[in-house]
Amino acid sequence: METPGWIYVVVTILGIIIAVTLIGCLLTVLAIWTRPVLRKLVNAPLVSLSCTDILSSSFGAPLLIHAFLHPDWEPPGALCWLQSYVTIVLWGASSCHMACIALQRYFMVCTNSVYLKSKRVLFIILLLTWLIPTVSFLPIHVVEEVKVHPKLKRCGLGASPNLWGKIVPSILSFYGPFIATITLYALIRYHVRKSKKRVGAHLGNSSPNNAAEKQLTRMMMTLFSVYTVCYMPLITMAMFSSRVPREAFIVGQVLMALNGALNPILYGLMNRNIRQGYKHIWNSMLNYIV
């Protein structure tokens, strides 16, 4: 079967997205790790989210490219199971990271509790961010047979009749965190508008620390908006796969992959310290090469 010409365009776009994601996310991790001004508790979720994007681009996207170029290829059973499980867990981890970041912002902006802003609490939240999708999707992957989805061109459980086995983990890993994130950001905005005097110590002053806090909150909200545009179309289409054309799934998967490439760009555009960290690493690499 001859591969259509437009598939090569999609594959080229995916290849560029993978390269930008890997370079950008690695730069983010290195910048936060090596720069003292960035090596703070508040940036830990960004490192964790960058690791999620790196794993997605290293594992899921290359298999998707192979499936586009070789539509008749059937992956071995073990690889098919691994692709289905790891892909859905990483999708869920991305959604849970959005809730984790929003919850951290809520603690920083709307509470005065030192305990809620502690390293211990953040560690627990990050642990749950990875644990919830990892555990919630495991039972159905153990009891159900994983097959290649004819439209998604990847292994999955879209055709499984076990509705509750899919709905429960989807609520825990996708829709629950998504609704929680929207709610938390709405509470933050309400808190800022309703109690300017109280929030002034965090966001209202013109001091560098307060300006940076306001900038960081704005960046996180933009991050969530971009995540919504990139992720939710495919997640929604997957729930109604029988009524969605194959081409729509391809667009949805490209959008989802694009999110990992856009995140580091957003960090650099909206955070001066991260932008300077990128420049410092690039300059160090160029000096080393020259």
From TrEMBL:
GO terms for cellular component: plasma membrane. It comes from Branchiostoma belcheri (Amphioxus). This is G-protein coupled receptor 84-like. It is found in: Cell membrane. PANTHER family: B2 BRADYKININ RECEPTOR/ANGIOTENSIN II RECEPTOR, G-PROTEIN COUPLED RECEPTORS FAMILY 1 PROFILE DOMAIN-CONTAINING PROTEIN. Residues 24-267 form the G-protein coupled receptors family 1 profile domain. One of its GO terms (molecular function) is G protein-coupled receptor activity. The keyword Transmembrane helix applies. The chain crosses the membrane at residues 6-34, 46-68, 88-109, 121-143, 163-188, 223-242, 248-269. Its main location: membrane. InterPro entries: GPCR_Rhodpsn (IPR000276), GPCR_Rhodpsn_7TM (IPR017452). Keywords: Cell membrane, G-protein coupled receptor, Membrane, Receptor, Transducer, Transmembrane, Transmembrane helix. Gene3D superfamilies: Rhodopsin 7-helix transmembrane proteins. It is a multi-pass membrane protein.
